[in-house]
Design brief:
Blueprint: H1 3-39, H2 47-57, H3 82-95, H4 103-114, H5 118-132, H6 134-147, H7 153-156, E1 161-164, E2 167-172, H8 181-187, E3 217-221, E4 224-230, E5 240-244, H9 254-266, E6 271-273, E7 290-294, E8 305-311, E9 314-322, E10 328-333, H10 336-351, E11 363-364, E12 367-368, E13 370-379, E14 382-391, H11 419-422, E15 425-429, H12 432-444, H13 457-467, H14 473-495, H15 501-510
Parallel strand pairs: 2-15
Antiparallel strand pairs: 1-2, 3-4, 4-5, 5-7, 6-7, 6-13, 8-9, 9-10, 10-14, 11-12, 13-14
Helix pairs in contact: 1-2, 1-3, 2-4, 3-4, 5-6, 9-10, 12-14, 13-14
Length: about 525
Amino acid sequence: MSDESQLEDEGTKSAKRGRKAYESVYGALDTLLGYARVHLGLDVQDIDWARNRVLSDFDLTSYMPSPVIRGIGDLGDLPNPDPLLHRFYQALDQLDVDGLGSEESVDDLVMGELGAAPSVLQRRFAQIEADSGGMEAMRWFYRYCVANTYVKKARLDKNPRFESHGLIITINQAKPEFKNMKKAASGNSISGGYPQCSICHENEGFAGRDKRTLRTIPVSLGGKPFFWQFSPYGYFSQHGICVNMEHTPMHVDRETFGNLMDFVDRFPGYFLGCNAALPGIGGSVLAHDHYQGGGELMPMHKAKAWGLMHVPGNDKVQIEVLDWPGTAVRVVSRSRQDIIEVSEHIRLGWQHYTNRDLGIVCRGEEGRRSAVSPSVCRTCRGYEMNIILRNNGVSAKYPEGIFHVHPQYWAVKQEPIGLIEAQGLFVLPGRLIGQLSALESALIQGKGLPETLGEFVFEFDEIQRLLQGSRNLDDVHAAMRDELGSICERILGNTAVFKDKQDTVAFLEGLGFKY
C-alpha cells in the first residue's frame, strides 16, 4: 500500500471514529430527552428547544437523530437518570469537548436545562394541593427533585443507617465534617456576595454553585413569605428546609412557635423545627432565618414522658418532661394559642435562668448563652411542641462548651449537636467508614489498636469488653454498632443542661407549672 493510500485509509478510520463519537453524544442526549418527557414533564413541543440548549452548552453545532433510541416506555421505571447522565458524560469526554468540567457539574447543567421552570412546578404543586392536599403535593415535589437529580437519593441510599440505644445512627459520606461552627459558617458564606449565603432564594438555578436543578415552593408562615426546598444530601426521609425570603438572622421568639404550627397545619405529615439561634450549639447558617424538617419523625418525637406537669387553671395543656438523654420538654394541646403561650413562657424562663452549681449561666461576656430548639408535629393528641433546652457556655475544663460533645468522644463526633441530632438522629462523618472497618479488622484478627487510629482508644477498649474475647465477624459488627449508639447516647447526655430529671421539674415549677 502506497503512503498516500495509507494516509487516506487512516483518514477514513479517523472520520468514522469521529462520527461514532458524535453519534454516541446524540444518542445519549436523545435518551435523556426521553427521560425528561417521562419524569420531568418536558413538553413534546419543547424537545427541539431543549436539545438545542444542551448542544449549545457544549458548543456542538450539529445534530443527527440517533439510529437506535431507547424507547420512552423503557424509561418509566428508571428511578433516576444517573446511568443516562454518566453515558452522556462519557460520550462528551470521548469527543474531547473543550472545558468539559466535572461530571457532577455537567449533570447539573444538563438537568437544569431539561427540568421545568420554577413557575411551572409551582403551578403544578398548587393544582395537586388543591385536588389532593398538601402532603400529596409535597410527595410529588420530592419525587420531582429526585428525578431532576437535585436530591441525590441514589447516594443517600448507600449511607449506612441503623438503630441503636433508641437512636438512629447514620454515616453521611457526602457531608463535610465541620469540627467547629466558625468553619461551618464559613462554608455557608458566598464569595462575591451573590447570593448572600448558601440558602438564599437567589440560589435557585444559580450556575455559580451548581444549583441549576434547585427548585423551591413558596410557603407563608405568620403571614410572611418563606420557601421550602428539599436538601440534596438529606439526613432522613424528605428532609428539607423552610427559609425566610428575607436574608435576616436566625431567631427563636414567640412568633416562631406560630410559624412552626402554620407549616404543619398545611403539611400535617411533616415535622418542622429550628436550631437554637446561638453559635456553638448546632446552627451552621445563623445568618439566615430558616427551619428544617421533613417526612420522618425523630426518635425524640416518639420518646415517652418521664413525668407529667400541668398549667394551673388550664386542663387543655399537658407538659411532659421527656424520658430522653438530652433536656427536653413537650407541650401538648389542641389549642394553638395555648401552645404559643406555654412555649413562650418556657423559652423566656430558660433564657433568663442561671444555676451556677450546674454550670448554667444565662449570659456571658459574649451575650446570651441560653436558648431553645423547638420542633412541632401533629398527632391524634393535637399539636406536640418539643422544646430542647440548650446552653453554649464554656469553662476551663470544657473550652469548646460545657454542654458540647466531651473530648473522649471526639473520635466519633466532634461537631456541635444541632436540632436533628439533638432529636436522636446522629449524622456521623464519612471518614468513619474506613476507620471503623480498620477497627473491626483488628478486633477480628485479635490485634491491638492500630497506631494510625490511636484516637479511638476509648471506644476500642469498650468494644473489647463487650466482646469478651469473641472474634466472630457478626459479634464484632454488632458490638461496633452498639458502641456507636452508646457513644451517641452519652453525647446527648453531654448536651443535657439538667442531668437529673428532677432538676428539669424544679425549673418548670419555678415557672409556675405544677408537677
